[in-house]
Design brief:
By secondary structure, this protein is mostly beta strands. About 10% of the residues lie in helices and about 35% in strands. The protein contains three helices and 15 strands. It has a five-stranded antiparallel sheet. Strand 12 and strand 13 form a beta hairpin.
Length: about 270
């Protein structure tokens, strides 16, 4: 099966003003599952996402409603909704950064955490700036979007099986069994994603436009994984509610001292 995606858009790079770098400390993962659209009783009790053993690519888009170059990138990411490779070999997430907010339009999906995450990547790459739209593929800067290159998710490498099971919408059970021995400690990050979202932008570079978004990170949490017999696991309580209803979940495992994902998985939480 051809898993390439052709890029129909070309967009320039708009570098933002620099802001102070702050490292986000690891902590207890709190995720909200209340407010999901109605599902069948069986689905409401338990829903499981699993990666299989082949590596699934994590594709991150750093974007902003205040950036006039970002809508084409947002539209390109939205095309993945109809791809057969979605969740199977590529997990897309859109982080809205907050450094555009002071330039005329406060992006309601933006957060300092998203900005800090992008800045940590820049520091790992020994870069001195961040920009939007910016893509990161498996922890590496990916500029193929601007060159109309093909994105080929997954390299066919065996990474290990990552499984996330949601029970009664209140508990997330995480299990990761790597195919090879892993040094150091691991953590899991879980994002609740919004889809089919719209904003009527009143000011800034996109003033007067209606913007459409998918795979938007509404909430991101993390937790340390405990190892036993080659299996890494965590049980996470998810007690709070979100104002925006999450449509999907994305999860990935990485080392505690790096952001590069080892494995990813995800799926829809609402019927599509």
């Amino acid at each position: 099966m051809d898993s390439s995606f052709r890029l129909p858009f070309r967009s320039g790079v708009v570098p933002p003003a620099a802001s102070a770098f702050r490292r986000i400390a690891g902590g207890v993962l709190t995720i909200v599952l209340a407010g999901f659209a109605a599902q069948s009783p069986a689905a409401a009790e338990s829903i499981t996402f699993t990666s299989g053993e082949s590596r699934v690519s994590l594709l991150e888009l750093y974007t902003s409603e205040g950036c006039s170059s970002c809508p084409p990138a947002d539209a390109w990411l939205s095309q993945l909704k109809s791809s057969p490779d979605l969740w199977r070999s590529v997990v897309p997430v859109a982080f809205h950064v907050d450094y555009w907010n002071r330039l005329g339009w406060p992006d309601r999906f933006s957060s300092a955490d998203s900005t800090n995450r992008q800045r940590r990547y820049a520091a790992e790459w020994q870069g001195n700036s961040v920009y939007t739209p910016g893509f990161v593929l498996n922890g590496q800067e990916w500029r193929g979007f601007f060159d109309r290159a093909s994105l080929t998710p997954g390299a066919g490498n065996r990474a290990g099986r990552l499984t996330v099971t949601l029970r009664d919408r209140t508990t997330a059970e995480v299990s990761f069994v790597p195919t090879a021995a892993t040094r150091g400690s691991l953590r899991v990050e879980i994002a609740l994603l919004g889809a089919d979202l719209e904003s009527d932008v009143k000011r800034g570079e996109n003033g007067g436009r209606k913007l459409h978004h998918d795979f938007v990170v509404l909430h991101l949490g993390r937790a340390a994984l405990t190892e036993s017999g080659g299996r890494y696991s965590a049980t996470i309580t998810v007690p709070e509610a979100l104002a925006a209803r999450p449509a999907a979940l994305a999860a990935w495992v990485s080392s505690t001292d790096a952001q590069t994902p080892l494995q990813a998985t995800g799926g829809w939480l609402t019927k599509r």
